[in-house]
Design a protein that fits this description.
two-stranded antiparallel ribbon, mainly alpha, 3 helices, 2 strands, 11% strand, 131 residues
């Protein structure tokens, strides 16, 4: 007994199917579609491509592009760099003030570790140029 051949992929893509939408109360056919797997695949792919193109166009051609991370105007980038520099300098100034207040507190409470530097300095005499 011969086995029936399995349909190839191309033949399965071209098999025809019917999609019927019926009214549930009267069982009347409202609309009927004759479809193939290939036509459903092409239609869904086309809709996907159109939606992606519309989304990209919406972002590129409208002010929504400013909300995309990494995309900003040149003036906004310069302003951001200035703010970063200012923040860094403010942080450094705050650290310096904290260190100053800590040292001042130590001096006022008498918890100063006095270590004297006893190494002599070798200072050169300034050279005078006679006019």
């Amino acid at each position: 007994m011969a086995k029936p051949e399995a349909p190839s992929t191309l033949k399965r893509l071209n098999n025809r199917y019917r999609l019927v939408i019926m009214n549930d109360d009267t069982y009347e056919e409202v609309i009927t579609f004759k479809l193939t797997r290939l036509s459903v695949y092409i239609a869904s792919s086309s809709i996907f491509v159109i939606l992606v193109c519309l989304t990209v166009a919406l972002i590129v051609f409208t002010p929504l592009k400013q909300y995309v991370p990494g995309y900003a105007t040149q003036s906004a980038r310069k302003e951001l760099q200035g703010l970063k520099l200012r923040t860094d300098s403010l942080e450094q100034a705050m650290k310096n003030k904290d260190q100053y207040l800590l040292n001042l507190k130590k001096v006022l409470t008498g918890n100063v570790n006095t270590v004297y530097d006893t190494t002599p300095l070798k200072v050169r005499k300034p050279v005078r140029i006679n006019d």
